[in-house]
Structure formats: C-alpha cells, structure tokens
Here is the input.
Amino acid sequence: DVDLDSKDEL
Amino acid sequence: MNIFRLTGDLAHLLAIIILLLKIWKTRSCAGISGKSQILFAIVYTTRYLDLVTTYVSAYNTLMKIFFLGSSFATVYLIYVKFKATYDHNHDTFRIEFLILPAVILALLINHAFTPLEILWTFSIYLESVAILPQLFMVSKTGEAESITSHYLFALGSYRGLYILNWIYRYAMESHYDLIAIVAGIVQTVLYCDFFYLYITKVLKGKKLQLPA
Here is the structure.
C-alpha cells in the first residue's frame, strides 16, 4: 500500500 | 530523493553537528535539555530498526548510523561526561507525558499492526513532540545561547523542508503518507514561535530573550 515507500525517508 | 528532502536531511545533520560541537567545545551542556536528547535517541532507535533488515541506499544507511550514533553520543555527553554542567533544575518536562500518548496513538492510528510498523509510527509521533522539553527549558530560562538557537533553527527547518518534500512527492509521484505529514506539520508548528524570535532577534545579533 501507499505508505511502504515512505520508509525510504529518514 | 529530491532537493527538499536532501536539504532537509542536511539541515538535520547540521543541527546535530552544531549541538555536538557546542557541547564538546564549551565542555558544557548548559541550556541543553537532556530529556529532548533522550527522546531523539528513542525516536531514532525505534525508527531505524530496519537498518539491519532492509537496505535502501548507502546514503540512507550512513545517515541512519550517524543519527543513531550522534544521538547516543549526545546523551552520553550530557548525562555522563559533562554531567556537572547539566541544568536539571530547568530541564523538568515530564517526558512520560509525551511517550505514553505516542505509544497509545501508535497503537490506534497506524498503517499496519505489525511490530516494525507500530514502532515506526510511534517514532514519528514521538519525534513531533520531542523538542518540547528543550523549548520548555528555553522558556523557563528565558533565553538561549545563540549557538543553541542556531541548533534549534536547523532542527526546526529539517522537518519544515520535509513538508516541501511531501508536497513535491504528492505532486510528482502521487505518493503521500498522512501519518508522517500530519506529525511533521505538528512538529514544525511547534517551532513557529521560536522561528519568529530567531528571525527577529538572533539574526539581528541580539540574544534570544523570551519575553519574561
């Protein structure tokens, strides 16, 4: 879902 | 990666380096809230647990290692090495009133009910209020050394720049994460009063004096 790639942020 | 996030991370890096240099050079942590630094160490620990499981990029891994190392080093300098200069009379904010609500909120509002996701969400909520003990201490002492205000300006700017990054990512990649965005806005708003004082006073060479 949408939030997974916000884990590439610090 | 985009320019807003990169400058945000660099502002964050700068803030941490300013703080470490201030404490190390002056061999004193006067005016620095140890409680906020403890909260930051908790934030990075609970957020960067994926350091060992997922590899995003060398940049991502290096920054996580630096943030983890520097936050623990800062706590060590305050509570061990320069303990004698720690101003615990003014660093009295009850951080359990920040940690508990963040835990409860993370359990209630999250993207997935898995340990890693709950810890990440907790760290996002906690980071948004982690600076409160420091801002509280500045308001109690009524002033801050200019180096401390530079630290706070850089630290406050970092999440402000992340907001621009989220706008950019929504516009360009139609990606957004409401939990990070709402917490990031709260975090940046908490600095607004300080930003006003910093720009109207410190940049004019005056000391940061809060209205008594």
Observations:
- Chain B has a mean pLDDT of 96.
- The helical segments of chain B are 3-26, 34-47, 58-81, 96-108, 115-129, 132-141, 146-173, 178-200.
- Chain B touches chain A at residues 5, 9, 12, 50, 54, 56-57, 60, 63-64, 67, 111, 120, 162, 165, 175-177, 179-180 (CB under 8 Å).
- Chain B has eight helices and two strands.
